[in-house]
């Protein structure tokens, strides 16, 4: 288990990835519905993965500026516990998605400088959780999953009205320090537990969860 810090392993694509996340002691697993990502899964793939997830492993759908038709299609097929909005959704859209689907919504906010911090308060007022991630580099073709960390001192000691998760460039080697510096009680990882983009590595997943628990 990961002590009292909860771990989300994102970008799972194979049943063996779900098994690895569960076996390691992760609290959440994430499925990416974003075609430009090497971690993208179809609705049918996600359904198979979600059905294979054991009780106790919360299933999160990551979407980027998804419209209602897209969310309807996902939620009509895939048993899910949470929606992760990882695009440029507004606070109004976050509130609308919560109302329409009745699932907890986690809103991702990209951080590069102190000027980005007020967004965390804005989304903390409407979302069920906030995901504090690195802002993507200029020219990136995806808004997350870029193996990029931000300056953790920007959020050291800060708290918001809702639970939050730390993301961005976390690895088995740096996650313990990230938790120590930020006080995070939840962490999210994708690239840092892969052997190649989109290919999860069971040994790295186990090492990541173990490192969080140390
Ligand atoms: O993982 C992706 O490909 C992805 C695509 C689009 C939006 C978000 C994505 N991933 C999320 O980004 C953060 C950080 O990822 P990493 O550990 O730095 O690779 C994490 O929340 C992922 O869920």
What can you see in these coordinates?
- The chain is an alpha/beta fold and 214 residues long.
- The chain has one domain: Aldolase class I (TIM Barrel).
- Helix content is 32%, strand content 21%.
- It contains 7 helices and 10 strands.
- An 8-stranded parallel beta sheet has the order 7-6-5-4-3-2-1-8.
- Strand 1, helix 1 and strand 2 form a beta-alpha-beta unit.
- Helix 1 packs parallel to helix 7.
- The protein starts with 5 loop residues before the first strand and ends with a helix.
- The site of the ligand O=C(O)c1ccccc1N[C@@H]1O[C@H](COP(=O)(O)O)[C@@H](O)[C@H]1O has 28 residues, from strand 2, strand 6 and strand 8.
Structural class, by secondary structure, is: alpha/beta
pLDDT averaged over residues: 96
Percent in helix: 25-40%
What is the end-to-end distance?
10 Å
Number of strands: 10
Strand order in the sheet with the most strands = 7-6-5-4-3-2-1-8
Annotated CATH topology: TIM Barrel
Radius of gyration: 16 Å
Bound molecules: the ligand O=C(O)c1ccccc1N[C@@H]1O[C@H](COP(=O)(O)O)[C@@H](O)[C@H]1O
Q: For this entry, what is the oligomeric state of its chains?
A: single chain
Low-confidence stretches: none
CATH class: Alpha Beta
CATH architecture: Alpha-Beta Barrel
Q: Give the percentage of residues in beta strands.
A: 15-25%
- Give the SSE string: EHEHEHEHEHEEHEEEH
Largest sheet: 8 strands, parallel
GO biological process, one term: L-tryptophan biosynthetic process
EC number: 5.3.1.24
GO molecular function: phosphoribosylanthranilate isomerase activity
Enzyme class: isomerase
């Amino acid at each position: 288990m990961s002590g009292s810090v909860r771990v989300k392993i994102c970008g799972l694509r194979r049943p063996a990835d779900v098994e690895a996340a569960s076996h390691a002691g992760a609290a959440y697993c994430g499925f990416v519905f974003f075609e430009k990502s090497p971690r993208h899964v179809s609705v049918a793939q996600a359904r198979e993965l979600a059905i294979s997830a054991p009780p106790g492993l919360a299933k999160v759908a990551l979407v980027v500026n998804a419209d209602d038709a897209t969310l309807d299609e996902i939620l009509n097929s895939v048993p899910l516990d949470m929606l992760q909005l990882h695009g440029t959704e507004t606070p109004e859209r976050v509130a609308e998605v919560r109302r329409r689907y009745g699932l907890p919504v986690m809103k991702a906010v990209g951080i590069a400088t102190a000027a980005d911090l007020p967004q965390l308060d804005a989304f903390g007022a409407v979302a069920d959780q906030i995901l504090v991630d690195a802002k993507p580099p200029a020219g990136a073709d995806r808004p997350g999953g870029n193996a990029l960390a931000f300056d953790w001192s920007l959020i050291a000691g800060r708290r918001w009205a809702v639970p939050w998760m730390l993301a961005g460039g976390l690895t088995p080697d740096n996650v313990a320090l990230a938790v120590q510096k930020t006080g995070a009680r939840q962490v999210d990882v994708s690239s840092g537990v892969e052997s190649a983009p989109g290919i999860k590595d069971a040994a790295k997943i186990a090492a990541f969860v173990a490192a969080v628990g140390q």
